[in-house]
Amino acid sequence: MTHRNPAPTVDIIIELSDRLERPIILIERKNTPFGWAIPGGFIDYGESAETAAIREAKEEVSLDVELVEQFQVYSEPNRDPRQHTLAIVFIAKATGQPQAADDAKNIGIFHSGEIPTSLCFDHDRIMKDYWRYRHYGIRPHY
Amino acid sequence: MTHRNPAPTVDIIIELSDRLERPIILIERKNTPFGWAIPGGFIDYGESAETAAIREAKEEVSLDVELVEQFQVYSEPNRDPRQHTLAIVFIAKATGQPQAADDAKNIGIFHSGEIPTSLCFDHDRIMKDYWRYRHYGIRPHY
């Protein structure tokens, strides 16, 4: 089939459930675009989004995550400067000490209000949506 | 980029909001696999999932829909017998008289409890998840 589509990816917002106030993990990217971002990557052919999310979390931050829920899909054509990708964003939880690997040069653990600004891609928007959902229970809506 | 990914699609559960008890629309497919299904189709490169959902609804059932929310993503590798696709399922509303067009040979308007069984793809599961959400407010979860 020659139909050209956006490339589907997953991003995983990982809450560290064994720490006070469940901080989340961001990665500092090893490759362009450089900067801080939510961990994630491409879904492989033959792999569900859920399997991809668990695999990517393990590859980038070295943790076995438990998926909590699908949060939201972000698919605006200009969200990634390299090509059109769509991101299925999951909320997950994990315990223990994350370690940067694969595409991640460094990892950071952040509480609400401490998140760096100017994240890569549309991750500022995703973070804003996530904290609103976590604090007030309000999902992104139209 | 030569990375091979599942092909992203949208499905749109359209509630007819000007009718008693908001029945939904299914289509009878013109192409294989034959049978009843939720309207939907492939997301084009350069198009958001939301734009694709509004376009596909217009093409298949001839209605201008208003998106209500993203419902859930279904991405099991075996959900479509032809190739690995993932479906971003939307809930939308519309008014007026739907008419079959494009990939739809026929349309049907169904209330809860009247939905045909043995829908194409994994649409039986999606319908089950949808009615549980609509009746009880419970989203699919892990």
UniProtKB/TrEMBL annotation, chains A, B:
CDD domains: NUDIX_NadM_like
Pfam family, one: NUDIX
A Gene Ontology molecular function term of the record: hydrolase activity
Keyword Hydrolase: yes
PROSITE patterns: NUDIX
All residue ranges annotated as the Nudix hydrolase domain in the record: 3-133
Tree of life domain: Bacteria
Xref: SUPFAM superfamilies: Nudix
InterPro entries on file: Nudix_hydrolase (IPR020476), NUDIX_hydrolase-like_dom_sf (IPR015797), NUDIX_hydrolase_dom (IPR000086)
Keyword terms: Hydrolase
Keyword Ion transport: no
Record family assignment: Belongs to the Nudix hydrolase family.
Name under which the protein is recorded: NUDIX hydrolase
